[in-house]
Structures are given as structure tokens and as C-alpha cells.
Amino acid sequence: MSQESLTSQLPGDFAARCRKLGSSTLFEASGLPCAADPQIRGVWDGAFIAAPAFPLECSPGDNLGIHVAMEQVPRGAVLVVSTSNFIAGYWGEVLTVAAEAAGVVGLIIDGGVRDVAALRARNFPAFSRGISVRGTVKASLPSVGKPINFTGVRVARGDLVVADDDGVIVIPQAEAERTILAGEERAAKEAAMMQKLANGAKTLDLLGLTHWRALK
Q1: Residues annotated in the binding site for Mg(2+), as ranges?
Q2: Entry pTM
């Protein structure tokens, strides 16, 4: 599957629209159990990803799958890597340089990374469970490009991944258009609400919770 076929299945201008909305709004709008473990965080503040997923699985402490994936991943995709939550330095500056050359736009991994200063300096967005100087072996290849379970969320090739300072979500490809439209509607309603709050309105009134005042 080419980069064009991956991105063509997602809504037009999806990256800019997702950046404006953010992961929290999109999660609420989706109505889906699509949030990854909240311990998966950006390794530097302000990192952002909105891209089609390329999933793979690594054995604990083994990053061979990532090296194989680098020859298969379509340009414009984000690598989503399951490691069974084993924290080690699966990814560092060398793989970051290789990813940039391959057109990979970011990394989501439930394990660890290292060379954080280099990732920050290169502005490469990476989200991981931890940081570790400990390296990995290259000995096994569980799966590359096939659907995976990532911290309880199913990830298939082409699903929409959005990651920012609030967290990581994975929206099934078939739900992406609906979710973004619902997110934009939600954002418009929240903007109107915040304007009313700025003018002195109370959240209990705006959210229909006035019955709780009687319990003071």
C-alpha cells in the first residue's frame, strides 16, 4: 500500500484539522475506546503527530522489527510499535535519521527510546512509555504491518493516529471522517460556551446542572 493510498482513505487536510482540534477533543468526539495508555507521552514538549498508522510488533528488548519496517513503511506514516511494554532504547538518533530519509513522520512506542536531545534537536516527534540507555538485540520478528493490540487499542495499517501533549489516540480509518466532523462541531460549541463563561455565565447553568445548587 503506497503513501497515497494510505492518506487518500483519510479526510482532506486531516493533519491540520487534527492539530487544531487536539487529541482530547477528538477522543471525546469519537465516542470510541481509542485512547492509548496515558503513560505513553511525548519525549519532548509540543510534539505532535497526525498520520496514518504503520503498526508492528517487537519482542521485548529486540528492535529487529523496526529495522525491517523501515524498508516497508509508506512515506507519511507513523510507526506504532508494540513491545509488550518492555522499556529499553529501541529507538535513537540513528533510526531517527533513517526515518527522516524514509519519510516517516513520527514514532509511537509502548517501550522506550534514547538520544532524547537529538530527537528534540531534529524536531522528530516520538511518544514512548519511558527513556532508557539500555540497547536492544536484533533476533526476532513477530509482525510488521499487521494489526496489533497497542496498550488495549487495536491499530491497523492506515488508522488515524493523533498524538500531542494530552496523549495518543488511534481512530479506525472508517471512523476518521465522522470523528473529525464531530470534533469540529464540538469545538464550535465549546468556543461559544467559553465566550459565555468569559461574560459571567456559570458552568452549572450552561451544562444543565443547576439541580446540584439545591444540595449546597
Answers
A1: 115
A2: 0.93
